[in-house]
Write a structure and sequence with these properties.
Length: about 250
C-alpha cells in the first residue's frame, strides 16, 4: 500500500499513476467546489462562468459581485502559476517530490479553509478570502495534473472533460459505411475506448465528489474541509520524506 501511495505523487511516473492521481484529485476538486458553494454561494472551479460573470456584472454595475469574480479569476491564475513554479523548481533540483510539493501546499490550504469556519459568521471580507483560497487551490491542482500529463488530463475543467467525452462518443457511434479503403482513403473512424472510459470516470468522480462535499459541508460545516486535506497530505508525504531522508544522508 505504501509503495502504491508513494507512486501517485512521485517524480517517476507511469500511465497508471497519472490516471489514479487524476481520479483522486478530481473527486477532491468536486468536493471542494461544492464546499465553496455551500460556504459562499459561488463555484470556484468554473473559470468560464466566472469570466462570463465579470462581463455581466461590469455591464450591470454590480461592483461587489465584480470584485468577487475578479478575485476568483486572479487567484486561480496565481495558483496555477505557483504550481508551475514549484514543479519546475523541484525538477531542476532533481527532487522526487516535484508533484508532492504543490500537493502539500494544497493540503495546507484546505486545512486553512476548514479553520476559517471558526472565524465567525461569513461576512463580505471572509467570503472574499474563502473565494481567493479555493480558487488558488483549484488553479494549483489543475496545473499539477496538466503538467504531469502533458495537458492530456484536467481535474477541475469539467467542460473540457465533457467535450472530449462527446467527441469520443461521436466517433463511437459514427457509421463508416462504404468508403475508399486505406491506403487510398482515410482510415475508418474508431473511438478511443480507453480514453472514453477514463473521461467518463473523471466526470462521474467530479459529480460524486460534489455530492459528497455538499452533504458533508451541509451537515458538518466548513470544518468538513479537513477530510479533503487529509488524503491530499497522504498523497504528498512519502515523496517528501524520501527527499528529506536523501538530503540527510548527503549531509
Amino acid at each position: 500500500m505504501k509503495t502504491y501511495i508513494k507512486s501517485l505523487a512521485h517524480r517517476d511516473r507511469t500511465e497508471a499513476s497519472d490516471r489514479h492521481l487524476a481520479f483522486y484529485l478530481t473527486f477532491i476538486a468536486g468536493a471542494a467546489n461544492a464546499g465553496g458553494f455551500m460556504a459562499v454561494h459561488q463555484y470556484t472551479s468554473h473559470m468560464s462562468g466566472i469570466v462570463s460573470s465579470l462581463a455581466d456584472n461590469l455591464v450591470l454595475g454590480e461592483l461587489e459581485l465584480l470584485l468577487s469574480g475578479f478575485t476568483g479569476f486572479v487567484f486561480f491564475l496565481f495558483g496555477a502559476g505557483v504550481s508551475a513554479i514549484l514543479i519546475n523548481w523541484g525538477r531542476r533540483r532533481n527532487l522526487r517530490s516535484i508533484y508532492a510539493l504543490p500537493l502539500a501546499l494544497e493540503a495546507a490550504l484546505l486545512v486553512a479553509f476548514s479553520l476559517s469556519g471558526f472565524l465567525g459568521p461569513i461576512d463580505r471580507d471572509l467570503a472574499l478570502m474563502i473565494i481567493a483560497l479555493l480558487c488558488f487551490v483549484m488553479g494549483l491542482q489543475n496545473a499539477i495534473i496538466t503538467k504531469l500529463s502533458g495537458a492530456r488530463i484536467r481535474t477541475t475543467h469539467v467542460t473540457g472533460l465533457v467535450t472530449d467525452t462527446g467527441i469520443e462518443l461521436g466517433k463511437l457511434f459514427y457509421w463508416n459505411g462504404r468508403q475508399i479503403a486505406p491506403p487510398d482513403g482515410p482510415p475508418p473512424v474508431r473511438a478511443d475506448m480507453p480514453k472514453l472510459w477514463l473521461l467518463s470516470r473523471m466526470v462521474f468522480l467530479f459529480f460524486l465528489g460534489g455530492v459528497t462535499g455538499a452533504i458533508s459541508f451541509q451537515h458538518i460545516g466548513i470544518s468538513a474541509a479537513i477530510f479533503l486535506a487529509i488524503p491530499v497530505a497522504v498523497l504528498a508525504i512519502f515523496p517528501l520524506l524520501e527527499d528529506y531522508n536523501a538530503r540527510g544522508m548527503k549531509q
